[in-house]
Specification:
Length: 222
């Protein structure tokens, strides 16, 4: 029987994503300051030692809560420690745009991406498998069509920029284990416990219930 291949490490995933960008082309990491993006930037900085690329971090300051300034401070400390230039985009979230708070924040965030990331450049995003499962459930519950149910792509062209989600096949628990191994620090967004927000309700109540009966629920949905 042929030997089973060893599962590719998270670092190897980021190395591969970086190696696929043309030499000299700028690569950005969207850095919120949470576990996922802090780990992504750390791994990207290490990957740049093997595949040299201009690497920058981009933090979007939404200004929606008092903790926002703390997120920015953490991002500045992490980027400084890694030797990665950090750019901060401050946005105004239009709460009355009819998109809901999550949708309005996403719109503002992508507008910030477009302002800072130039056409032809690559932006790495830190969504993982659990995020994908939540996205699928949200799309289904909101009555999205086939396109919405397809979830987030691992890679796509967006307004002339290349968006890449190299961690999309890996679980949150895998990211936590790698962050612990690296002794990484991050900040937790207190709004993540607010189950008045649809995604948080799915994350905090619905998916754990599904996984109590079907342990592979998140994997299957993603």
């Amino acid at each position: 029987m042929a030997p089973r291949h060893k599962r590719e490490s998270l670092q190897a995933l980021i190395d591969d994503a970086l190696a696929e960008t043309p030499p000299g082309r700028v690569v950005w990491v969207a850095l919120s300051g949470g576990l996922d993006s802090s780990l992504l930037l750390t791994l990207a900085a290490q990957a740049c030692r093997r595949h040299p690329r201009p690497l920058y971090a981009l933090h979007v300051h939404h200004g929606l809560q008092s903790a926002a300034n703390g997120f920015e401070r953490h991002c500045r400390r992490l980027a400084s420690r890694l030797g990665v230039p950090l750019f901060v985009e401050r946005v105004a979230v239009e709460r009355d745009a009819g998109l809901g708070l999550e949708g309005a924040a996403r719109k503002a965030r992508y507008a910030a991406f477009a302002r800072r990331v130039a056409p032809g450049e690559t932006l790495l995003l830190a969504q993982h498998r659990d995020d994908q499962a939540e996205t699928f459930l949200l799309a289904a519950l909101r009555g999205s069509g086939v396109r919405g149910l397809a979830g987030m792509p691992a890679e796509r062209e967006w307004q002339g920029r290349r968006l890449v989600r190299p961690l999309l096949t890996r679980s949150r628990s895998e990211l936590e284990a790698e962050a612990a191994r690296l002794g990484l620090r991050w900040v937790d967004d207190p709004s993540n416990t607010d189950e008045a927000l649809d995604r948080n309700f799915l994350r905090g109540s619905v998916l754990p219930l599904l996984q109590s009966r079907w342990p592979q629920a998140a994997t299957a949905l993603a």
